[in-house]
Amino acid sequence: MSLEKKNSYKKCKCDICTKFKNQNISGVGTILLQLDYFGNIPTIILGKERAGQYKGEYNIFAGKMEKEDNGCYIKAAWREFTQESGIELSLNNFSKTITNRYGLYRYIIHGKTVIFVSKMSGLSRNSINNYIYKKNANHNLPWPFREIEKVERFSIDGRHIYIDKKTNKIIYNKKYCKISSFALSVMSKIIKFI
After folding, report:
1. Stated pTM of the model
2. 3-class state of residue 28 by DSSP
3. What's the pLDDT tens digit per position in 100-143?
4. CA 28 – CA 192 distance, rounded (Å)
5. Topology of 15-193 in CATH?
6. Strands 27-34, 113-119: parallel, antiparallel or unpaired by DSSP?
7. 95/118 Cα distance (integer angstroms)
């Protein structure tokens, strides 16, 4: 009878997971990058955490590997992303958002966390927030589905960004939004994916 270490799950055999196998990666995350919003100004959608280390701060959609992920970093990133953002995607469609046109995964390693860079178009911050508000009102849902209070859109350099509906102009820093130190350091590394 062998003893298994806590959080050491059977490793997935897919190419990307094999690559990370010996790198001691324990966390997974997804940063949502949009290139088609605000007239080709690259933007990132971050979620405001309701509890934990980053409570009240905007952060990427991230967490730890769970047993249900079967040691697959892509499954874990997909699970965390869909639970926290409220964006409903199949695992297959999520995988398409984190690969380039050659089928190679877009990611960075930040500490002991792999962060996949998801590129999506046509997402409305308001529609995501409406879904999140509905989830948060349902106290029968497990906590992982209610971790995020709302989402906001930021420029790559961390400035809050939105469109003034009266003037139809881009507005930066209209209101104060605290971004987690983790998200800021990840944001500084994704410029290569634009």
Report:
1. 0.84
2. strand
3. 999 999 999 998 999 999 998 878 888 899 999 998 999 998 88
4. 20
5. Nucleoside Triphosphate Pyrophosphohydrolase (3.90.79)
6. parallel
7. 9
